[in-house]
Write a structure and sequence with these properties.
With about 400 residues, the protein is an alpha/beta fold. About 40% of the residues lie in helices and about 15% in strands. The strands form two sheets. It has a seven-stranded parallel beta sheet with strand order 3-2-1-4-5-6-7, sandwiched between helices. A six-stranded parallel beta sheet has the order 10-9-8-11-12-13, with helices on both faces. Strand 8, helix 7 and strand 9 form a beta-alpha-beta unit. About 45% of the residues are buried.
Length: about 400
Amino acid sequence: MSSIRLLAIADSESYLKWAAHLLQALTDNHADASVDVALIDSPIRPTAAQVQHAVAGTQWAHGRVRVLDGEQLTQELDESQPNVILAAATGPVVERIFSVAASRPQRPALVSGLPGMGLPATVKGQKYRRLGDLFIAHSEVEREAYAIAAERAGIGTRQAVARLPMLKSAGLPHIVSQHDHPVTTVVFATQAKVPVQRGQRRQILLALAEFARRDPDHRAILKVRSLPGEHETHREKHSFIEILDELVCDGVVPESAIDVMAGPMTDFLQPGTALVTVSSTAALESLDRGLPTLIIGDFGVTLRNLNKVFIGSGIIGSLFDVAAGRFQFAREEWLLDNYFQPRTEEVHAELSGLAKLASAGRLRSVPWAIEIYKLRRFRQQIRASAPRPVLRSYRKARKALRF
């Protein structure tokens, strides 16, 4: 039998992509790993098209990714008997998965991580993962940040570093020459959280339209992770698609100036293309392909904008640079410090060790974990929906009972 029997459970398109590619790399390089991936039903569950985009290039590309509802989770663990669970999901869903798994008499190892650039590291996020044995980070900078967050949260989860599985370069990326392949296409990778303001998003679209206007051979693409009616990991307050439609209707931007497209990011990263974003892991995928890449700094390069990690990279630019078609490639020192470190066997070694402990029944079970989880959810429901007098009475009773 394989020493690692790993089941990944994802809840959204971005987490499914990360899990599928991580597990594919694991099985490609290690014969002792047997892996599977499933989706858990949730409000952000990806559509069939999003699933296919997420698993493109993996062993799940031509099959069906199973969907589990809440009641099927325990049944799935009974039938598949994994010795490692990878909760590839948002914090509350990780807590749910871990609580069910930790309650089992012979529990599996509990592992989690984030589907891309993971900074800033938050104490709140680590508290959702308090039952975990291992957290997968993607650079030494991230490892240090999450170790600090775990310590502040008062939990003992270890951290291990693995390259993001979407990065395929063996070492430092080979830079594609802009002389041989001049940039004629700009792809803007959207991110649901940033920029925050509607006006800022409008400015980005205007810069893309200006790039396309300057040369008949130029093309601007708005690369989205979801089309109308689909969901992402995070909710987008101001839709780029809706703003673009308004600009076209008002005659500010020609209808043909910007193409709206979805699909696997790798399909867009071709020679002659530059990738632009405020903050997206797509920037790393672009650098991995040796393509010119630009982080828009007009709205701040900060933790709030999720792009502070790019300070010192050499690829922070402006909307004027986007419109003018001025793009750079990242500095070698920054690449080595941030996500393009040499590959190691650290994560495989950690997973192998945890799998053996789980198979031997040496990981501590937490039989009351699921009940604690239910109590926390009950409290949240009360805080969210109860009238103020009821909420005050509940808090007084909770304080008196000290629970």
